[in-house]
Structures are given as structure tokens and as C-alpha cells.
Amino acid sequence: MHSRMIRFAVVPAVALLAACGSTQQTTLPISAIEPEPAVDRAAEARAFVDSVEAVLLDLSEKAGRAAWVQATYIIYDTEILAAEATEEYLSASVEFATRAADYLDVQGLSPEVSRKLQI
């Protein structure tokens, strides 16, 4: 009975493939292709600034806590923790500053976003 079920399932699939077996590809006319939506660079810059502020706030808090522990418990291990947290914060800051340069010439930025990008 199992082989009979397989045979009945395969027959419609083979018939479907034969019906659709045309090797010609249809192409859409150029007018049917929708243009990509315009990117609002000012909104993109605002979103970038917001995400950068959130990340740097977290990294700053982490570095501050590590520095407090290092100052309270002055041992080799806490110095390493503080140095690593500070390095992570500084590396992220440099990367974000480099990426912020892409948005400096965007028109329509608010004075606040423009100032944050320059800083």
C-alpha cells in the first residue's frame, strides 16, 4: 500500500513539472521594476547618533565601574579589567567617529544631531 501511495503522489508532481517544463524565462519590462525608495539620510543620521549614544553609554558605565573597582581594590587583576574596559570604550569611540564622518555633509540635520556628529 505504501508504494501505491508514493506512485499517486509522484504522478501529479511529474505532470506539474512537465506542464511547467518550458525553458523560456520571462522577463519583466523595465517599467515593472519598482525603484528603490529614497533613503532619508537625515533620519539615518539621527538613528546612527541614537544607537551610538546607547552603545557608548553602556561602555562608559562598564569602564567607570571597572575603574572604581580598580581604585578600590588595587591589584593587578583589577588594573587589567579597568584597562580592558577602557580599551573597549576607546575602540568603539574611534570606530563611531570614523563612521560619523559619512553623515557630516547630510542636508536637513537638526543642530543637535549635527553637533553630535562633529563631536
Structure, described:
With 119 residues, this protein is mainly α. 70% of the residues lie in helices and 0% in strands. The protein contains four helices and no strands. It has helices spanning 2-19, 41-72, 76-100, 111-118. Helix 2 (41-72) runs antiparallel to helix 3. The termini are far apart. Residues 3-23 have low confidence and may be disordered.
Entry summary:
The protein is mainly α. The protein contains four helices and no strands.
Outline the secondary-structure elements:
Blueprint: H1 2-19, H2 41-72, H3 76-100, H4 111-118
Helix pairs in contact: 2-3
Sheet with most strands: none
Mean pLDDT: 80
Distance between the first and last residues' Cα? 75 Å
What class do helices, strands and sheet pairing give? mainly alpha
The amount of beta strand, in percent, is under 5%
Which short descriptors sum up this protein?
single chain; 119 residues
